[in-house]
Amino acid sequence: MKISAVKGFRDVLPEESARWSWIERTARTLFARYHYDEIRLPVAEKAALFGRSIGEFSDIVEKEMYTFEDRDGTRLALRPEGTASVVRAYVEHSIYVKNPEAKFYYIGPMFRRERPQKGRYRQFHQIGVEAFGREDPVLDAEVILLVADLLDELAVERAWFELNSLGCSACRPRFREAVRKFGERLGERLCENCRRRLGGNPLRILDCKEEACRAATENAPSLPEFWCEACREHFSRVRELVSAEGIAFRENPRLVRGLDYYCRTAFEVLAAGLGAQNAIGGGGRYDGLVEALGGPDVPAVGVALGIERLAMVAGPHPEPGGVEVFVAPVGRPAEKAAQGLAHRLRRAGVRVEMESGDRSLRSQMRRAHREGARFTLIVGEEELADGAATVRDMVAKRDFRRSVPLGGDAETVLTALRRLGGGESAKTGGS
């Protein structure tokens, strides 16, 4: 019986995987320049972590988490996002004691049991950064600039930012209450989901994707009307700092983000060509989350980007190198010498493919041609007797009989290949 992948889970095949690897390498290099260190997080966490951080009334906690009971009765969840796990690690290991201004990045899979859609599956993958210990707008702007730099290095051509401020504990409660009262007056004009949200997270009615709800809430209270002076000043400085670096953005007063822990700066990254689900990432400030999860009152800001969607909008990636040298043993007695030759070249950084000595030379040459090898090293009975492999130049279609010593070190072999190739084998061995 053929068994297929679970719905919403999929294989990332080599061609796509190479593109992902390029995105991840680019991100790691950039994050290091911004002084972020990698943190590797467990895939499973206690389910209570996400209830306390994301919010009990969020769609993620209520409907989308993969949860299960461990043998000791503990309720566990496959992580639906990365921020809560990073904060949990920051608190659990008391990182705030030795490095209160720690900066982390993570790369890995997340899990949500939502309807699979373009660029989003039930197992999806994110790149994220989290910075702790500073409440100044300079750090907010730095995170936005980091994302802009990543988009630039990935050659994402049509992407933009939407920015808002969600206020703070001094002004946000008044806004929440105003939205709640506004929503209650709408009654049946709101979808069932939004009516339920009014009791726990009324701001989410502003983020509903249902057309009827968007129309009904068109005249909802606007966040900027409720900002305190400190929040107004904070957001003004973020906008000024981002604008100074030429980063285009649009202010969106309806942007509330889906997670309870955000405050002040919130932003989304959107890209053309993805249809209605055009967000490739988002983030913002979450100053109260560390304290909510048992730590001290430490401010923080972060962002997460979806690898699947980044891969859909990024420019062409460098093609991975093909086989440089193909080693073809002719007959089983030649395998040992051929294997040693291939191994030495691989250890020297050369991309080598080798077949079994049971395969005919003709079939091996066809394989070498398919793999795009620059040279084929043939090891047969005569080559074993002379202690030297025959080199076939796959471009010039010429054989150099027994011209490379079987027992030579990698550099000796590479020097011979460069000489025989007339200097055209510069890629081989990184020369």
Primary descriptors:
single chain; 431 residues; alpha+beta; eight-stranded mixed beta sheet; five-stranded mixed beta sheet; 16 helices; elongated; disordered C terminus
Task: Give a summary of the structure in a few sentences.
The protein has 431 residues and is an alpha+beta fold.
Total helix count? 16
- Mean pLDDT level: 86
Low-confidence stretches: 425-431
Query: What's the β-strand tally?
Result: 16
**Fraction of residues in β-strands:** 15-25%
Structural class: alpha+beta
How far apart lie the N and C ends? 50 Å
Looking at the structure, what is the overall shape? Answer: elongated
> What helical percentage do the residues reach?
25-40%
Spatial order of the strands in the main sheet? 1-5-6-11-10-9-7-8
Rg, please? 29 Å
The description of the largest β-sheet is: 8 strands, mixed
Furnish the topology, listing elements before pairings.
Blueprint: H1 14-33, E1 37-38, E2 44-46, H2 47-53, H3 59-64, E3 67-69, E4 75-78, H4 83-92, H5 95-98, E5 103-111, E6 123-132, H6 137-153, E7 159-165, H7 172-186, H8 192-197, H9 211-216, H10 229-244, E8 249-251, E9 263-271, E10 279-285, H11 289-292, E11 300-306, H12 307-313, E12 325-329, H13 335-347, E13 352-354, H14 361-370, E14 375-379, H15 381-386, E15 388-393, E16 398-405, H16 410-420
